[in-house]
Specification:
mainly alpha
Length: 393
Amino acid sequence: MKRSFSFYLTVAATTLIAATYGLARFAYGLHLPGMQAELGFDSAVAGAIFAGGSIAYCVGAVCGFGLAPRCPRTLVALAGATAALGTTGVAIAPSTAWLAPGAVLASTGAGLASPALVRVIQRNLRREAADRAQSIVNAGTGPGLIAAGILALALLPQWRAAWWMAAAVSVVAATAVLLLDRQRDSVPTLGLPPAAWWRAHRMVIVGALLMGVASAAVWNFGRTMLTDAGLADGATVLAWVALGVGGLAVVPTAGLLAVRPPPRVWALTVVVLALATATLVAAPATVGFTLAACVVFGWAYVASTGALIGWTALLKPARAASGTALLFVLLVLGQAVGGAILGLVVGSAGYPTAFLAAAAVAIIAAGAGVVRSRPGARRNASPRTPDAMTSGR
């Protein structure tokens, strides 16, 4: 396998993740103040749109759970199309009634992209190259967040142009992945996972759900908390960029993480996420301290989601794409639950209590990596060999 091909496929896939996550899904919260000011909808409507986007993400990921092993190209095309159409809808929205379905549809692309790209990378690259590529591609959220933040700083309050950019990048990235996907393997219809698969995944399932609850503190209330602490709008946008810088920092550390067992990587990264969540409220009005905490959180969040991919691939390589989709659905469901619960905690006890509670949940989630699940497949089994593709069905 030529290095140049591996490089270009990794770049294209990473760009698609950057577009569907950083520029489409997570950018909603970044541009929310400007959209509310222009279109005149309140926080209740804003929360309903966010919830709708989370549901759409889960629908996309559930589709990926069933379809990624057999037709990842279709999912890649749908990811680019839904992200582009959704962000275009937001960009042209004359009212909240137009913006809401656009924002919801835009979130669907992220749910479709992750499992599809796991399969595309898995079948086009050798195992050694694929492991590193998966970590880099999953870290595409970081560059997306950075790009979204830079666009916000450059364009605010003209938020519509940023959504047009997201649409264009989504189309270009999806097209590039489709052109570079050279393999046409025959994958048997696996159907729903057997009971043994669920038993092997019991700890990682619990960990993903709890980490979603814990991460909701920063993703849902981080910018609001910083604004409440007295930081200027520009500084809160820089904090968003810092989250992306942390996510991007996963790329140079991908090699170090890839040679370690995914459960250990999970435990390490989620503990770091807990520490970053707790320390973020120590001095939120201090810009340097806040930016550093956001960088650490961004690294830990993206690295831990990469560990989820590696963990399910370790347990059952033939179902890596489907396992990724399921775990990401649970992660987002955890974020939805965490957002609701932590919102009540913020209202009754304040931000410090809510963030410390989230950090405690993250510590519990990290414990899933310490309690070992019985692996259903060996780490060094090639996902493209017949035995790996058919064992345990």
